[in-house]
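FORM 12-B: Structure-to-Sequence Request
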């Protein structure tokens, strides 16, 4: 939750910035800040989700530590952002999860999900071993088991994310409404290169790679989702049963998306580990790394499964892959995925801010 200490620090930083205004051309945070005189909890949450943690304003700031004002906008807003994830989380009971992510816990969740799948598959009479010929996944985990398990997890995740979305719209919106241009801005990452030059990645250094890896991750995820949707359509509407050929639409979409979800998260991980720690909130290390790991492993196991689907190892690979997918689904509303939702809401609200 947004603790009084975090809110107090956010208010201090915004009060100093609002008097100084040196950074007003850097990103949407500063024009939106200038439209406000007071910074209540939800105003700070809005501004925090407008910030993409580039660091530009820290490197420019004459009041940054060790100055006695101690102004560090990216770090302060990162702390507020984490509090906002907890604040708008549904059910609130799970809000503590955002601070307890780790590599080990993600792997344990995936392993547990694989075990559940295997037990359900065995109970429904599937032949797990020896491997089925021709890569028939449904002979290993029956279609009904997959639909029931992933359907339940998917509907729950969608419900939790939708409630978070509505809560953020209500909290961020000062009454001026939301603009669809914000969705376009989120999809194009417009504010990561507003001025035509790329954001700083370190002091005095500019690089397009953070933006590029974000794009690969975002569109990789979207293509994988499209692949699953097309496959579901094939099965339910046309009665065309998997496995599909290497040139078929679901496989082509899944392969392209999988490549994006390998390169994007790997690149984001490499950049993250090299970033200036002064910009970051250490409480979010586990949150970031575990989400990147889940995306990477979901893609890596999926592509491996595709390549080896006619081999004896297929049932084992299928169980591991579906374990990561289910683990990812279950953690979507309580992990870094919510960054995409709240940032989009913040940009939609910003689209209706009075111009400055
Ligand atoms: S970050 Fe520093 S330089 Fe920039 S507006 Fe705030 S106080 Fe001024
Ligand atoms: S870190 Fe970058 S995006 Fe965040 S407030 Fe500063 S300039 Fe804006």
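FORM 12-B RESPONSE
SEQUENCE OUT:
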């Amino acid at each position: 939750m947004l603790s009084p200490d975090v809110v107090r620090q956010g208010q201090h930083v915004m009060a100093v910035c609002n008097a100084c205004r040196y950074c007003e051309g850097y990103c949407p945070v500063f024009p939106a800040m200038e439209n406000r005189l007071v910074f209540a909890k939800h105003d700070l949450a809005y501004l925090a989700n407008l910030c993409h943690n580039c660091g530009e304003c820290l490197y420019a700031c004459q009041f940054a530590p060790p100055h006695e004002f101690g102004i560090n906008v990216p770090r302060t807003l990162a702390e507020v952002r984490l509090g906002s994830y907890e604040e708008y989380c549904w059910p609130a009971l799970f809000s503590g999860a955002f601070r307890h992510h780790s590599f080990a816990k993600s792997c344990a969740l995936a392993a547990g999900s694989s075990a559940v799948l295997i037990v359900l598959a065995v109970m429904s009479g599937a032949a797990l071993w020896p491997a089925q010929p021709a890569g028939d996944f449904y002979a290993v985990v029956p279609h009904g088991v997959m639909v029931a398990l992933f359907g339940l997890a998917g509907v729950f995740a969608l419900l939790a994310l939708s409630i978070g979305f509505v809560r953020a719209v209500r909290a961020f919106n000062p009454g001026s409404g939301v603009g669809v241009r914000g969705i376009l801005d989120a999809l194009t990452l417009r504010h990561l290169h507003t001025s035509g030059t790329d954001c700083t990645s370190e002091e005095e250094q500019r690089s397009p790679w953070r933006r590029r890896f974000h794009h690969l991750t975002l569109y990789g995820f979207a293509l994988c989702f499209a692949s699953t949707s097309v496959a579901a359509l094939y099965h339910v509407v046309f009665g065309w049963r998997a496995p599909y050929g290497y040139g078929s639409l679901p496989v082509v979409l899944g392969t392209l998306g999988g490549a994006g979800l390998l390169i994007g998260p790997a690149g984001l991980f490499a950049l993250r580990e090299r970033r200036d720690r002064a910009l970051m909130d250490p409480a979010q290390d586990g949150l970031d790394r575990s989400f990147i790991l889940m995306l990477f492993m979901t893609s890596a196991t999926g592509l491996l499964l595709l390549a080896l689907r006619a081999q004896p190892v297929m049932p084992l690979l299928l169980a591991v892959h579906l374990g990561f997918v289910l683990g990812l689904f279950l953690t979507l509303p309580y992990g870094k995925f919510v960054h995409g939702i709240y940032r989009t809401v913040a940009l939609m609200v910003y689209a209706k801010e009075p111009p400055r």
